[in-house]
Amino acid sequence: MKMRYVCIFSIAIIMTTSAFAGVTVTAPANNSTVGTSVQFIASATTGCSKGVSAMGIYTKPYQLDYSVNGSSLNTTLSMSPGTYNTTVQEWDNCGGASTTPITITVTSGGSGVYVTKPSNGGTVSSPVNFVATATTTCSKGVASMGIYTAPYQLAYTVNGASLNTNLTLSPGTYNTTVQSWDNCGGGASTPMTITVSGSGGGGGQVFKNLEAGGGWTGYALLPPGYGICSYCKPGGPEATWSMTQGVSSPSLDGKSTKFTIGGSTKFADILYNNHLIGDFSSQGLPDSNHTLVPTLHNFVYDVQFYGTNLELSQALEFDLNQFFNGTGYIWGHECRIAGGHEWDTWDNVNQKWVPTGVACNPKSNAWNHLVITVQRTSSNKLLFQSITLNGVTHNLNITRSPGSAPGWYGVTVNWQYDGDKNQTPYTVYLDQLNFTYY
Length: 438
Known about the structure:
Layout: H1 2-15, E1 22-27, E2 32-34, E3 37-45, E4 52-60, E5 63-69, E6 72-78, E7 82-92, E8 97-106, E9 112-117, E10 123-124, E11 128-135, E12 142-150, E13 153-159, E14 162-167, E15 172-182, E16 187-196, E17 205-207, E18 216-221, E19 240-247, E20 256-262, E21 269-278, E22 298-306, E23 315-324, E24 327-336, E25 342-347, E26 352-359, E27 368-376, E28 382-389, E29 392-400, E30 403-404, E31 410-418, E32 426-437
Parallel strand pairs: 2-8, 10-16
Antiparallel strand pairs: 1-3, 3-6, 4-5, 4-7, 7-8, 9-11, 11-14, 12-13, 12-15, 15-16, 17-32, 18-21, 19-20, 20-32, 21-31, 22-27, 22-32, 23-24, 23-31, 24-25, 24-30, 25-26, 27-28, 28-29
């Protein structure tokens, strides 16, 4: 029997050079930490015209612990704690075979991270759906889970032993890690290598670095009504404001945009607006036949912002807007800072801000990464999906009705910064403002 396995491994080494043969292992992920009940999921292809005969799992050389007829397997093996250099193998009906090695670390008591989506080594479109669960030997349970899109780059966290979220990632290959932390100071992780395809593959189109481009118009908004002040000018005196592009420092890419605010009117605000698609498009997408805008349902506002003293801001506002058929969908998001350190969202029907209960505490003298995801549902409601600030995601799942907007057509973004009770001057820098739509 030992010689039979030696021959199988020899054939496998030769046959893996075939462009038509291969073993794809979905679970467990290579180099992952798993519990003692290890689920193996795999499939196989072959260049043999007679197809795949069987598949099997070696937990170590010469030790075949499981085999099944056909070109797929899905089974759970009980394994003692330790590190295993396992091999998943296929045999075809022409006498050939191929293998995929999988190294895993088994921990006692079932601690581990189990990733359902995406598949390790797979190609996906953005936004990328991550689905995972975690177990632990800690009697106090799993505290939280997170996703690293690169070493030391924590892109998402959530409390509890499961996660299901979408991350907007630019095209490229990512060595991601899904991590769990328990309430005893321990944790587990599973590495996942994925390739994100370019735009147009179902993951949406992206306008990049909008802060560095054209199309921005600034306005002053004065209390008590906060309508656009038609007579106000950037030089004041009611409100003062400026926008300077191409700033090298502070900057993430050498070309941030600087925004200032001041003036004599307390609680005055400055609004900047950019028409992206439709009427007055700054991106060359006027959609004159009105065939694009009505088909768009999903939007992502992704931006980095910096301020030396953000506590001087009454609030920072980030809005995504869609208008067509006389209806207005305004996904307004306001981070109240001096106003109370809380996120509000906009009620289109009642024209007011509604507190979410989610804290908003951006850092001064540091870049703050904000990602907002929203959706126009199939029933034409506004869905406020999530807010992610500095890697911490809060799933809002707030649904509201739209308002009216006669005469408007298109998709726009807003950026607004508000003065405090003394209208104290302050400065905010924006960088890497990307907008995804699909």
